[in-house]
Amino acid sequence: MTSYNPKTMIPYGKQDLNEDDIAAIVDVLKSDYLTQGPKVPEFEQAIASYCGAQFATATNSATSALHIACLALGVGQEDIVWTSPISFVASSNCALYCGANVDFVDIDIQSGNLSLLALTNKLHHAKLNNILPKALIVVHLAGNCCEMSAIYQLSLQYGFSIIEDASHAIGASYNSHKVGSCRYSDITIFSFHPVKIITSAEGGMALTNEAELAEKIQLLRNHGITNDPKVMTETSHGPWYYQQIELGFNYRMTELQAALGLSQAKRLDDFVQQRNALAQRYDQAFKNSSLTYLRPNSETHSSYHLYIVLLAQPYQDFHKEVISKLRAKNVFAHVHYIPIHLQPYYQNLGFKAGDYPIAENYYQRAISLPLYPNLSNEAQQYIIDTLLAEIQTIEKNLISVEN
Ligand SMILES: Cc1ncc(COP(=O)(O)O)c(C=O)c1O
């Protein structure tokens, strides 16, 4: 047992900013452009080339990127979009913004990602009932990729589009292709919220290899306004002229955000490496305990946005107690996520408890432990010792009750 004793709460995730990041923002403040200058396209280009995608569009959040990705794919009323119930609500809200219906695919308890078997069965039945989805939004939970090669084959067989919600997965790869390459999808979305792998404060990005989709996303990001004479309905009135040809939004990223993202992107691989090293230490520490932990599939090199353990089934009644005790000892354990279909808004849409039993079982057992690049070895050992001590207490108490 370590003697380390944290005086303040160890958070579950945290940004890592250095002097270069700060200088990059100050440079923008001293420049002529706070918005719509050179930094946004520079950031887009840097992320597109890192991922091996042709086009990247920066937005003010992953939520807005998901929204306009759905619109670019033609998602609208009468359409159905499927996603995982174990995600942040933004993964499914984006389809509701477009007037579409949402449905969920239950998860695989080993990875926390949507289950390939459940997806295959659901598609089979949906085809028979003529209710196939227009799009599937896969979520790479914690930075572990879904089984993209098989999911892509299913998309060809059943004719649906794929959006990768890779909010957790920049820097990860699947089959040696960087997430964001869109090798197995139409569009990939990243989030740059401060707890994510790299940050631009708030921010997101949509990547694609299809020029038409990229143009649509860029148009929708900026009110549906174009300066391109080729797509205008009449000859330009002069150099000031623009036309609004779609109903778009102001989802633009600022120069300040892009400069921070660009500076952070230089350390992306280091961050992912540090996260993997911390995850390996957790794996080692828990491998002989009753806890299980989410594991990436063999094709994935994870970005480890989160480290999630599952309580053994017999101990699930102690879930709240374990998390509360960890927090009382300054370890900010968390749960990612409350199943989306159990949210009141979704219950009002007709979803109910029991609809996705594996996701619900996962929710009763999942605990996210602190994981971020500058988490010290001492602090990590303290987290491990504190959690294992709690588990041992539960085990001992249960044994004494049984006897
Ligand atoms: C899986 C997932 N999708 C979407 C989002 C939304 O990201 P943002 O906060 O950048 O809008 C998040 C953020 O937590 C997320 O975790």
The strand order across the widest sheet is 1-9-8-5-4-2-3
Please, what is the average pLDDT? 97
| Percent in helix | 25-40%
Strand content: 5-15%
- State the secondary-structure class: alpha/beta
Q: Examine the secondary-structure arrangement and name the CATH architecture of the largest domain.
A: 3-Layer(aba) Sandwich
The H/E string reads: HHEHEHEHEHEEEEEHEEHHEEEHHHEH
Characterize the largest beta sheet: strand count, sense, and whether it forms a barrel: 7 strands, mixed
Which hetero ligands occur in this complex? pyridoxal-5'-phosphate
Kindly, what is the distance between the CA atoms of the first and last residues, rounded to a whole number of angstroms?
28 Å
CATH class of the largest domain: Alpha Beta
Helix run count: 13
Radius of gyration: 22 Å
**CATH fourth-tier homologous superfamily of the largest domain:** Type I PLP-dependent aspartate aminotransferase-like (Major domain)
Classify the fold: give the CATH topology of the largest domain.
Aspartate Aminotransferase, domain 2
